[in-house]
Design goal:
single chain, 11 helices, Rossmann fold, five-stranded parallel β-sheet, disordered N terminus, alpha/beta
């Protein structure tokens, strides 16, 4: 049986950690952002489980009802990830399969940009995740869904960024971060995994995300702790929307605080001393991994 440690990366976890720990950057990014548009932007929300995808989803739903400013594209989303715990799509392909999936995504992105220009469509952001979960797409978090190979079911925003640039599409990535204790409390309470297994998977995925950010031009992404703020920050909206958001829109989009990543009952209430020690160790490991993501956000 394979280890839960991630196998699906173009660099190992040790190399990922080395890249992510280097801050500020000492090298050119693998993917440089050259495409910018005030008409059509593509948004991907990147974050480990428990960092606020459902809060973002609630606000995206409100934005989508506002004259088509935020638009779902299930066909594009399915190209990235589908079929739940037995996934298919560019994010889980390797080698020749990855190249073919990326080429198909480039074709679809080019067609989208051309179609929107030809139709005279108003400015909009095409939301790749958090705006609909049908077809086993889920939230496309790090990781996405469960199963024996859960740690491998994560996005690849470097491949996504490369595909966007090849297609001439303006990709924007909203990177979510949150306190390690809150992440573990949220995910374990929702039965995503045990208090020892879930943090281990999250550590792997946090390092993968940090490594991917290290290889992306920082112009691709903005970072936010949406759970702490209770909303998507105003500056983040204006980063990924092709128009300047009004204060009225900003206030109307704000979600209720009663979302699925909000604070829950303490999962450690009945822990014995041995369990508490194990729990604290796992949270400390996750905290270190999450700091690698925050380092890239500050780079």
């Amino acid at each position: 049986m394979q280890s839960i440690r991630s196998r699906r990366t173009w660099f190992g976890l040790a190399a990922t950690t080395a890249l992510a720990q280097a801050s500020p950057r000492g090298w050119l990014p693998a993917v440089t952002k050259k495409t910018f548009s005030n008409h059509t932007r593509i948004l991907f929300v990147a974050g480990i489980e428990g960092t606020g995808h459902h809060l973002v989803a609630a606000e995206m739903k409100k934005c989508s009802s506002d004259k088509g400013l935020c638009v779902a594209d299930p066909d594009l989303s399915k190209q990235l990830y589908s079929n739940g715990a037995s996934p298919s799509g560019m994010f889980v392909e390797m080698n020749a399969g990855l190249a073919a999936a990326k080429a198909e995504l480039v074709t679809k992105l080019k067609a989208l940009i051309t179609r929107r220009k030809a139709s005279g469509a108003p400015p909009a952001t095409i939301v790749l995740n958090t705006l609909g979960e049908s077809g086993g797409r889920g939230m496309m978090s790090y990781p996405n869904f469960g199963g024996q190979l859960k740690a491998m079911h994560h996005p690849d925003i470097v491949a996504l960024g490369d595909a966007a640039e090849l297609a001439g599409a303006d990709l924007r990535v909203l990177v979510l971060h949150r306190n390690a204790t809150e992440v573990v409390q949220s995910t374990v309470a929702r039965r995503f995994g045990s208090y020892t297994q879930e943090p281990a998977v999250l550590v792997d995925n946090a390092m993968v995300l940090a490594g991917q950010l290290a290889l992306l031009d920082p112009a691709f992404y903005a970072c936010a702790n949406v759970v702490k703020a209770g909303k998507i920050p105003f500056s983040a909206w204006n980063f990924f929307l092709p128009i300047t958001l009004t204060m009225d829109q900003f206030q109307r989009y704000q979600a209720s605080s009663a979302h699925s990543t909000a604070a829950r009952a303490d999962i450690t209430a009945d822990f014995n001393p041995v369990q508490m020690n194990d729990y604290r160790l796992e949270v400390a490991n996750l905290d270190r991994a999450l700091r690698l993501i925050q380092n890239q956000c500050r780079a």
